Amino acid sequence: MFEMSSSSVSISILAVVAMQLSFIHNVLSLNQTNSYLQHICINSEGTYKQKSSYESELKDHLDIMSNILDYGFVHGVGGAGSKTYYIKVLCRGDASESKCRSCLYTAFSVYGTIDNCFLYISEIYTFQKVDYKHYLYLHNAKDVNGNTKLFNKNTRALLYKLKEKTTRKEQEPYTKDYMYATGEESLGTMKLYGMMQCTQDLSVKNCSVCLDSIIAKLPRCCNGKQGGRVLNPSCTFRYELYPFVKA
Ligand SMILES: *[C@@H]1O[C@H](CO)[C@@H](O)[C@H](O)[C@H]1NC(C)=O
Ligand SMILES: *[C@@H]1O[C@H](CO)[C@@H](O)[C@H](O)[C@H]1NC(C)=O
Fold first, then answer.
1. Are 45 and 86 in contact (CB under 8 A)?
2. With a 6 A CB cut-off, is 12 part of the ligand 2 pocket?
3. CB 127 less than 6 A from any atom of ligand 2
4. Per-residue DSSP letters for 37-97?
5. What broad class describes the main subcellular location of this protein (predicted)?
6. Which terminus of the chain has a lower count of CB atoms within 10 Å, N or C?
7. Which CATH fold topology does 36-122 show?
């Protein structure tokens, strides 16, 4: 996403990040994270230069935000020079506060996408809004054996079940599992595991709208794959044939 050759390169200021549960702090090497997945950069939502005061402003801001991750979600507004930026940080509901914090640091330094947290930086105001433009698709390399159509149908059914759970009425804001749900479904001798989450700035209703939009991307992301996920800046899901979240 960014070139190192020149001191005036621009870095797009969107990163979508998640990471595996290993504890990592300020690791710049992707090798060590063992879990680099993907990122999106949207130049239209702003760029900044490496080692600029803007970057250090962002870093300082993230440092402060990292101290208030107790329920796994934080958003903030800041300014550097004449620019205003908006930051959202969301950690997966099963990530501890310290995992969440280290994930955030890694997210900022590697601009990668992983498993456990999500960092979104933009100069466009996106709080409470559902993003219909930016989607990341990731899938398990393995195809399912047997009836693909049936498997897709079962996956969709699990996702709709999780959507109900994610948008349940009786849930408390400012908790780690607010608009977060996990679940599983037996498929003969196998089991399908799923996770779903919205960023906590959304209303429950908009969470539901966001989830519909990502579930609709299931064929595009994961047709016949043993696992997969769709992420956008407001919500995400993942499914696998093995457990991947902590109980
Ligand atoms: C680390 O990453 C570099 C660059 O992608 C690669 O060439 C190297 O083989 C990796 N090393 C290990 C131990 O994975
Ligand atoms: C729901 O999303 C729409 C479109 O993204 C936004 O304009 C609206 O303000 C949101 N509603 C609430 C209650 O947050």
1. no
2. no
3. no
4. ------GGG-EEETTSHHHHHHHHHHHHHGGG-TTSEEEEEEEETTEEEEEEEEE-TT--H
5. secreted
6. C
7. Killer Toxin P4; Chain A (3.30.430)
pTM higher than 0.90: no
- What one-letter code names the amino acid at 91? C
Residue 216: count of CB within 10 angstroms of its CB: 11
Does any ligand 2 atom lie closer than 6 A to the CB of residue 53? no
- In CATH, what is the architecture of 136-240? 2-Layer Sandwich (3.30)
Fold: same for 36-122 and 136-240: yes
CA nearest neighbour of 23 among 90, 101, 88, 120: 101
Q: In degrees, to the nearest 5, what angle opens at C-alpha 151 toward C-alphas 197 and 116?
A: 25
Three-state DSSP state, 214: helix
Ligand nearest to the CA of 110: 1
The minimum-distance atom of ligand 2 relative to the CA of 206 is: 1
pLDDT tens, the chain, 247 aa long: 222 222 223 333 333 333 222 222 222 222 233 344 455 565 555 556 666 777 788 888 888 888 888 888 988 888 777 778 888 888 888 888 888 888 887 777 654 445 678 887 777 777 899 988 888 888 889 999 989 999 999 999 999 999 999 999 999 998 989 999 999 999 989 999 999 999 999 999 999 999 999 999 999 999 999 999 998 889 999 999 999 888 7
Alpha carbon of 241 to ligand 2 centroid (Å): 34
Any atom of ligand 2 within 6 Å of the Cβ of 206: yes
Which of 133, 205, 206, 208 has the most ligand 2 atoms within 8 A of CB, as the residue to mutate? Answer: 206
Domain spans, the chain: 36-122, 136-240
